[in-house]
Amino acid sequence: MPLKVYTKAKLCYQGQTHGHDGFLLNIEQAKNFLISDHRNAEILFPYLIARELVGRKNSLPTRYVIYFHPRNQLSAQMYSALFERLKKTVLPDRQKAATEEEQRNKEALQDRSNARINHHRQNFLNKWWLLSYP
User: Fold this and answer.
1) What are phi and psi of 44, to 5 degrees?
2) Is residue 15 in a domain?
3) What φ, ψ does residue 24 adopt, rounded to 5°?
4) pTM assigned to the model
5) Is residue 47, in this structure, part of any structural domain at all?
6) 49: in domain
7) CB 50 within 8 A of CB 12
8) 3-58 pLDDT per residue, tens
9) Residue 81: domain span
10) Is residue 5 part of a domain?
């Protein structure tokens, strides 16, 4: 039997990518942030991945995501407790990754002056309070 050939393109969307576990909260943590400041409901959202959504009978979220997009850093700071959490958890790791990337770029350029260098980690650092891919 011949294989069926599909003529219409199928699209697949990855969705949001937090890029760091510091953006994720368990239900208890989320409740505490919501109780401490009702405005946190503006940036805390249930977080499910496809496997959790379709792979379980009960597809209720077990975690929440801190989602500041599209706020700039100044606006994000208005949610002080959640901003500070990211400052302590996400920022140091993104700084370290950007520094390591910069070192790799320098080494690559020393080996070959026309080497292709990367600014991927530096771009994440420039907006460290936002998900990697909102």
Assistant:
1) -105, 125
2) no
3) -100, 140
4) 0.84
5) yes
6) yes
7) no
8) 555 455 555 566 788 999 999 999 999 999 999 999 999 999 999 887 877 877 77
9) 21-126
10) no
